[in-house]
Design brief:
homodimer; 186 residues; mainly alpha; DNA-binding
Chain lengths: 186, 186
DNA sequence: AAACTTGTGGAACACTTGTTCAAGTAGTTC
DNA sequence: GAACTACTTGAACAAGTGTTCCACAAGTTT
């Protein structure tokens, strides 16, 4: 075991995390070698050492965020109750607003890089796989509506809260609970 | 009538249109005074003359796009048939893919500029106003789903076509045509 | 035609950018 | 301890950035 590589890997991860913080604060356009290095507390050249280019750094960040997003989204979907789902959505556009905004900026980045599409879309594929919906069309609508509600929540004058979202989520799943998850083992 | 102002206004508009083309091609991050000037065929200093800053130029572009988006979206919604709606959506993520991508990038820009939120959100407000839905919750779901379908269509490996979207749209509006527009006069 | 307003556009400024380079340190292997 | 590898980091470079400045042309008004 090489202790140097271990520390290197840790630093690499720290740089990616710093990049995400920069995106949360200033958007994708705020990401430069220098801003990331400053945020991570490393010298300017560190990001270039670990990532071939700025683009590679953004890609690495998207891939990492996509994993986390996957977990979060599946958590949201897995909750049976519309109130819990509404609560998760409300948190995404309020307390976690910056994070959600960053995620969608990276999301759109995938629209311009074909090689990133798979990663950005992964939570959708995984959701279908995990839930195994009886009615695929209804489920597809449900997933689209989540994205729409989040993105519209981000540009609302005042972001919607749990109580406002609950009836909407309820409408989405109630009556048609043909895609509630099949007792997801944990 | 001042002929100079008229030509100036025309040039101003040309610069905004060039900006949109640059965003379609290279994204918001590709927008610089020089790239826009080159695209518009004007000297480098022209954008600065007409817009106080690069930011102002982006804002003007968003405001202009928002108007067009408004028309497009209302057109989509106003069509009664699910096939026609599906067809419009399919066009947005295929032939007009670049344009749609640009619109969503500007959309997210509004997430970071409170003063732009109203413009970005305008088509939503207008839709509610025009359609006057009997069931506001169902309509809200419909609008969210449109955004979700479009954005997910942008990061799909191959963008969905009319035939794939039709059943989804149909599910969204059929059975619940309580928000079909009240004979929109034309 | 004189005074004005409005638009034009090249030169230049200070600054930030991504990236390279080379000299150095520290950990690992033999 | 010598050879090797992995990481560190400040200095530097060329390229591109937003923006300012200013002399000037072209319309409009009086």
């Amino acid at each position: 075991m090489d202790g140097r590589k271990a520390r290197g890997e840790k630093k690499r991860r720290a740089i990616v995390e710093a990049t995400l913080r920069v995106i949360e604060r200033d958007g994708v356009s705020g990401v430069t070698h220098r801003s990331v290095a400053r945020e991570a507390g490393v010298p300017t050249t560190a990001p270039t050492y670990y990532f071939a280019s700025l683009d590679d750094l953004l890609i690495a960040t998207l891939l990492w965020v996509a994993e986390e997003l996957c977990d979060d989204m599946l958590d949201i979907i897995a909750r049976g109750s519309s109130r819990e789902i509404a609560s998760s959505l409300a948190r995404a556009v309020n307390e976690n607003r910056a994070r959600t905004l960053a995620e969608y900026e990276l999301y759109l980045l995938a629209g311009r890089r074909p090689e990133l599409k798979a990663a950005a879309r992964r939570w959708l594929d995984l959701a279908v796989e995990v839930v195994r919906p009886a009615d695929p069309v209804a489920f597809r609508v449900f997933l689209a509506a989540i994205d729409g509600l989040l993105i519209q929540g981000l540009i609302a004058d005042v972001a919607p809260n749990e109580d406002e979202l609950e009836p909407i989520v309820s409408f989405l799943i109630c009556g048609r609970d043909d895609f509630t998850p099949p007792a997801r083992e944990q």
